[in-house]
Amino acid sequence: MALTGRFSLLVALGVVPVVLLGSDAGAAWAALVVWLVVAIGLGAIDLAIAASPRLIAVERELPPRLRLGETVRSELVLRNLGRRRLRAEVRDGWPPSAGVHGRNRARVDVPAAEGRRVVLALTPTRRGDRVTGAVTVRSHGPLGLWARQATLAAPGRIRVLPPFHSRAHLPSRLTRLRELDGRTPILIRGQGTEFDSLREYVRGDDVRSIDWRATARRSDPESPGSAKLMVRTWRPERDRRIVIVVDTSRTAAARIGDEPRLDTAYEAALLLAALATHAGDRVDLLLWDRRLRGRVHGASGPDLLARMVDAMADVDAELIEADWAGVPAQIRGVTSRRALVVLLTAADSTGSARGLLSVLPGLASRHRVVVASVADPTLEAAVRRRDELADVYAAAAAERTRLDADRVAAAVRRLGASTVAAGPADLPPALADRYLELKAAGQL
Amino acid sequence: MSAAREAETASTARTRSDRPAPAITPGVRRTLRRGRTWIVIALALLAGALVLVVVQGAVRAPGSPLAADNPAPGGAQALARVLADRGVEVGQVRSLDGALDAARGGATILLHDDLGVLDRERVRELASVADRIVVARPDFAALEVLAPGVRLAGAAGDAPADAACALPAADRAGALSDGQRLLAIDDDAEASGFAGCFPSGDGFAVVAGTSPDGAEVVLVGATTPFANETIDEAGNAALAIGLLGERDAVAWYLPGPGDADAADAPSLAELTPGWVSPVLVLLVVVTVAAGIWRGRRFGPLVVEDLPVHVPASETGEGRARLYARGSARLRSLDQLRIGSIRRLAAALRLPRSAEVDAVVAAAASTTGRPAASVRALLVDAEPQGDRDLVRLARDLDGLERAVHAAISPDQALEATDPTGRRP
Questions:
Q1: What is the rounded distance in angstroms from the CA atom of residue B247 to the CA atom of residue B38?
Q2: pTM of the complete model
Q3: Fewer C-beta neighbours within 10 Å, C or N terminus of chain A?
Q4: Which residues, if any, are the signal sequence (chain A) (predicted)?
């Protein structure tokens, strides 16, 4: 049950008769009692006439997923199953992070056996699953004095996907990929390249790539001197495997710049996956801390990115230490071939990186390993600022942090892996560039 | 506002679900069933309280002290009943007019002015009409008018055991209970005929005499001889019955509010219009209604589980504060020196594993500074105080800038790649 402002006003208007009859105290008291009885009686009648808020069928129409930053329409169809006209206020039980526009109080007027649609605009403010469990209906009587209220179960779920802002970097990287790809064959033979074609030698080609047998075949014995030198061309190998491991442990909860490390890692993983799938490589994703939090395996093409964002959407950093000893087994479960393993983690202090360093030798012997981590761009400025004593101590602390990160990076390189470290905005393109370098060098 | 909310007719093509959505809010019956225990406990408590009230008889409003119809310990119904049984006509009056009427009829007046509402004029008026007045616990005004020279003299320490006077009722009583209050008689009063009974120290529990207005006056210091609670102790009952039973009628005069002197002045209720109190009550009701209106929650609270985000720079700030609290000047400076030496080595194209001396020599030759001062800055100097630390830290920064400026005068420091690669 609920009262309305109109009822409070009605009670307050009792001042008029009480004051008008107020010359005599007894008459004033009588007026007060009569007024209150009338007001409460009207309220009770109103309540009795109000339609039951329980006799309502609720249907939801909701897109299953959207990207963070987009706006969707959440539609709610209320069907009045009772015999009375339903005049109600409706509130949908979305949490604050679902980003409901407006006040989330819709007024509906549903005649008996009809339905009405309530439309809300949602702009979620956080990644992950936004869940609503119930719809609250407050059914007013015709006088609008008292109301009946009930909360009806009407579960709804909308999945908010990572935004993938770094796709802005994709076109330029695709252009560079095309330069590497078969359309511009290269003359450097090495591991990770495959034979592409034979063509005539032009000045500037590497003489080591001249194919003498092909040259001999092409030369005409009848006219000596017309021999054309043939060279072999190569192109980067396709169908290499890339395994992206995102560390979702406590270090990923740290916020650098505007976003936690985990979100930056997702951006980098998405950009790398988009690039690699264009290049014809196969990408697998593992989200790992002490257990497997999410996994995408065997997807390709546009399906890959869709499945990746779906897996990432609901995974947030947990405040536990990562168990790196389990990672090699997980990678073995994804591929048995040599692969490019990208570890997106925080390699910034010797203490927390010990687990990572212990598994790197084994991984690096089987795969090419890249350790990508988000660096704090404010450290550079902190090291430079030396105006007063507090600044000097802050600079010393920042320098210490950087030296630790350098030491871990040096240890990682010594163990056979390579490192990529950049600020939150720069890490995704930096990782993509490293991938392109490796691909160009045929080192995948 | 955007089209955030709108209501429109649902399309009829959809699959209709004609079953009502299950309600989460419990209905009246379920609420009752769920709260059964508490309702039973509340009802039991209520019933217990009712029984207690009935048993204790506390339902009746407490009567005035010493009233003839008050059976409470402080009342005097016992005495009134006994007198009535003996044929004495007992009437209770609450106003001066009633008391005056009774006095004219020759009744004994029992005056007990508990709240002191009677002023001197009214007491004098009563005394001039009445023949016989018994005053229980007289106050200052009554004493002054009825028995000038008799003073209040505090409480008695023990029970007076001896009447020691000629008053027949006192003589018959013989002794009184504890809790008497004493009256003192000065020489003037003694001369005008006042005599005390039941002496205790300098005072008397009962004083009898004739008032200046001619009335026969008996002053009893305390109410104990009359009150239900104590009337059966010692000779209390004998004294009370003796004093009041002398004549055929007793007027039990307990002055009411109408007898007060201030009764002529208009009260607060008479000054304010009649509607003020009802409007105040109405305001309270409106406040409660508005509170329910605004306070009723629109459905259950929605739970939101927030992810943990920790600013990464906090560890660095914490470390800086630790350095500052411990005044770790040398340690802080060493961190800055290690960083500077690394950057200098990279800028000067020295290997990462280069000795410090090599870096010092290269930096000195590049900047043209003496090697000893560069070495002191990079290795040897120890900060002697906070000011020294800040100076050394700035000098380190200055040395780096100087080296960079010497190597590539065109480039700003910020544009240099810290890894030493040429762009």
A1: 63
A2: 0.68
A3: N
A4: none
Instruction: Categorise residue A99: left if φ over 0, alpha if ψ from -120 to 50, beta otherwise.
Output: left
Distance in Å, alpha carbon of A338 to nearest chain B alpha carbon: 30
**Using CB atoms and an 8 Å cut-off, which of residues 10-49 of chain A contact chain B?**
11-12, 14-15, 18-19, 21-29, 31-32, 35-36
Whether A56-161 shares its CATH topology with A166-171+238-440 is answered no
Domain ranges of chain A: 2-49, 56-161, 166-171+238-440, 193-236
Domain count, chain B: 2
Same domain, B253 and B364: no
Residues B87 and B184 reside in one and the same domain = yes
Confidence category of residue B3, pLDDT binned at 50, 70, 90: very low
Q: What is the mean pLDDT of each run of 10 residues along chain A (444 residues)?
A: 92 91 83 93 94 92 92 93 92 92 92 92 92 92 92 93 92 86 58 72 81 82 74 76 94 88 94 92 93 91 91 90 93 91 89 90 93 91 89 93 92 93 93 90 74
Same domain, residue pair B82 and B214: yes
Name the CATH architecture for the domain at A166-171+238-440.
3-Layer(aba) Sandwich (3.40)
Q: Give the nearest chain A residue to B15 (CA atoms).
A: A59
Do A128 and A313 contact (CB within 8 A), yes or no? yes
Beta-strand ranges (E) seen in A141-205 are: 146-161, 193-200
Query: If we measure between CA atoms, which residue out of B126, B84, B135 comes closest to residue B103?
Result: B126
For residue B179, being part of any structural domain is answered with yes
Tell me whether B295 touches chain A (CB under 8 Å): no
| B227 part of a folded domain | yes
Partners of A386 on chain B (C-beta within 8 Å) are 390, 393-394, 397
Residues 272-301 in A contacting B (C-alpha not used; CB under 8 Å): none
Question: Is the Cβ of B319 closer than 8 Å to some Cβ of chain A?
Answer: yes
User: Fold for domain A56-161?
Assistant: Immunoglobulin-like (2.60.40)
**Is B113 in the same domain as B245?**
yes
Measured between beta carbons, the chain A residues lying within 8 angstroms of B20 are: 54-57, 81, 152
Domain boundary among B260, B284, B307: B260
Tens-place pLDDT, residues B25-44: 888 888 899 889 999 999 99
Tell me the mean pLDDT in the region B46-57.
86
Q: Are A247 and A344 in contact (CB under 8 A)?
A: yes
Instruction: Give the per-residue pLDDT at A186.
Output: 60
A213 and A232 Cβ atoms separated by less than 8 Å: no
> Is B200 found in the same domain as B332?
no
* Cβ under 8 Å to B: A residues 378-397: 378-379, 382-384, 386, 388-390, 392-397
Residue range B71-114, pLDDT digits in tens: 888 888 888 888 888 888 888 888 888 888 888 888 888 888 87
Q: What is the pLDDT of residues B322-379, one digit of tens each?
A: 999 999 999 999 999 999 999 999 999 898 888 899 999 999 999 989 999 999 999 9
Query: Is B198 among the domain residues?
Result: yes
pLDDT at res. B265: 60
Q: Token pair of A159, please?
A: 């999945």
Percentage of chain B beyond pLDDT 70 is 89
Instruction: Please name the residues between 168 and 207 in chain B that touch chain A, using a CB distance below 8 Å.
Output: none
Is B299 close to A91, i.e. CB distance below 8 A? yes
- The DSSP H or E segment spanning B81 is helix B77-85
Per-residue pLDDT at B257 exceeds 80: no
Domain that holds residue B154: 77-260
Cβ B289–A388 below 8 Å, yes or no? Answer: no
Do both B224 and B86 map to the same domain? yes
Give residues with Cβ within 8 angstroms of A89, minimum separation 6. Answer: A105, A106, A107, A108, A137, A138, A140, A147, B298
CA-nearest of A310, A256, A312 to A427 is A256
Phi, psi of B383 (to 5 degrees): -70, 130
Put simply, the answer to whether A11 touches B285 (Cβ < 8 Å) is yes
**Is B13 near chain A, with CB under 8 Å?**
no
Name the residue among A90, A60, A91, A69 with its Cα closest to residue A157.
A60
Within-domain flag for B284: no
Task: Please tell me the predicted confidence (pLDDT) of residue B210.
Answer: 85
